[in-house]
Automatic annotation (TrEMBL):
One of its GO terms (biological process) is lactate catabolic process. This is D-lactate dehydrogenase (cytochrome). Belongs to the FAD-binding oxidoreductase/transferase type 4 family. Its EC number is 1.1.2.4. It comes from Saccharolobus islandicus (strain REY15A) (Sulfolobus islandicus). It comes from the Archaea.
Amino acid sequence: MDFTELKDIEQKVEEREDFSGEKVRPLGVFFPKDEDEVVRIVRFAKKNRLPIIPWGQGTSLTGAVSCDKNCILVDLSKMNKILEINDIDWYVRVQPGIKLIDLFEELEKKGFMLPPDPASFFLCSVGGAVAESSGGMKGVRYGSFREWVLSLRVVLPNGEVIKVGEPLRKNRAGYDLVHLFVGSEGTLGIVTEIWLRIIPIPKRKMVMIAAMLKDFESAGEVIVGLRKNKILPELSEYVDADVVKALNKHLSANLKETEGGMLLISIEEDSVDDVLKVLEGKTVDIKIAEGEEAEKLYSLRSQAAIAVKAESNKVFYAEDIVVPVSKLPEAIRRLREIGEKYNTKFYVISHIGDGNLHPNIIIEDKVARENAFEEIARMAIELGGSVSGEHGIGVQKAKLMAEQIVKHNGVSVLDLMYHIKKLIDPDDIMNPDKYVELAYKFLTSRG
Ligand SMILES: Cc1cc2nc3c(=O)[nH]c(=O)nc-3n(C[C@H](O)[C@H](O)[C@H](O)COP(=O)(O)OP(=O)(O)OC[C@H]3O[C@@H](n4cnc5c(N)ncnc54)[C@H](O)[C@@H]3O)c2cc1C
C-alpha cells in the first residue's frame, strides 16, 4: 500500500500483540498528533477501503484491536493532553490517548477524582476505556465509564467530525448518541476528544478490610450479606486462593494463603463494624489497613491479572461474566462444578460487589479452553446475567453476545444494532468484523 499521501504523519511498520494474545499485523501504524491528522487518515482509508483499527494501549482482553488482514492501526498515544479541568462545572476535557493513571494524578492534585478505575488503570488509555466502557474496582459504588462520559468528539468513518452531548450534568436534547459511542469498541468512529464528569475527592476516612476467607463459597455469601444489610462499599473485590498464590509468587505479595482467597472491602471508617458482622464465621483472618498499607492492597489487586498471566505461560482467556448479585452464590457453586468437569482451576478475579466475575481460564488445550469459556458464559446468560460486564466483546465473545441478545432481548434488537453499524459505517472500514457485526454474522449464518 502506498502511503505517500500521508507521509507527513508519523508512521511505522510493526507487528503488535494485544493483552489477550491476539496478533495484530497491520500494513502500517499511524500516530496522529491531532484531530485533523485523524480525519486525513480516515479519508484515506475510506478512499482505499482499508480497515482501520483505533488503538489505545492494546490492553483489550477480547481481541478488540486484533487485525490479521490489510488494515491500518491508528495509535492515539500522541494525542495525550488534558485540555481543561473545570473546577466549577466539574468536568475534565481530554484527548483520548492520555493514560488513565496520568489523568488520575493530575485530577488528584486539584482535589478531584474520576471514579471508574479499571485494574489496568496504570496501562490503559482514556480513549480505550471509553470505547470499552470499562468498569473497575470502585464500580460497585460509582459504576463504569458509561456513567461518567458527558460529551465526545468523534471522527466518523466518512471523515466527518461530530460532537455528541454537552458537558452538562443534565441534557435531554435528542437521542442519547454519547452512549451509542461509549462502549462501541471503535466500530463506529475514532474518539478524538472526551468530556468526563469529575467529583471532589470524598473527605470521609476510608479503610480497607482484607478478609482471608475460609472457602470460595463465602465470597458470594458475604456480598449477599452486605446487600441484605444495605451496606454499599466503595470497593469490594475478590481474588481466589490460586490468585493469592500467584500474587505471592510473582509479585512477592506476602498475603496469607487460605482456602477461600481474599475479599477486599474499602468502606468509611464508621461502617467497619457493620461489615465485620457480615464477615462473622466466613473468615480465617482479617486485617484492617489504612494509608500506605491499604494502597498496597489496592495495587496488588489491580495487578492480579498480571500475576495470573505470568502463572499461565500466556495461555489465558479472561472471562468477564456478570450475574445478578442475588445469584452470586449459585454462580460460584456452578463455576466450581465447571472447573471440576474440566479438571482445572479458574483463577477467579472479581469485582464481586457488582456481580462481575473474571474466571481466568488457563487450560492448555484450545478446544477445552474455548468450551469452558462458553460454558461459563452460557451459565451467566441462564442466570439472567451478561457475557460481558466491562471487557467488551471484541472477537472472542461475539457468538456468545448474539446468544445473550437473542435470548434476553430478541433477534430484532441485534438486527437494529447491526443496521446502526451499517448506517454509520456503510463501507465497513471501522474496526470491522468484530462486536455487533460479528455477532450478527454468527446469528445469520445459523439461520
Ligand atoms: C491487567 C489488566 C486489567 C484489566 N482490568 C480491567 C478492569 O478492571 N475493568 C475493565 O473494564 N477492563 C479491564 N481490562 C481490559 C480493558 O478493556 C482495558 O484495560 C481498557 O479499557 C482498554 O484500554 P486501552 O487503551 O488498552 O484500549 P485498547 O485495548 O487499545 O482498545 C480497546 C478498544 O477501544 C478501541 N479504541 C481505543 N481507543 C479509541 C479511540 N480513541 N476511539 C475509538 N475507539 C478506540 C479499540 O479499537 C478497541 O476496540 C484490563 C486489562 C488488563 C490488561
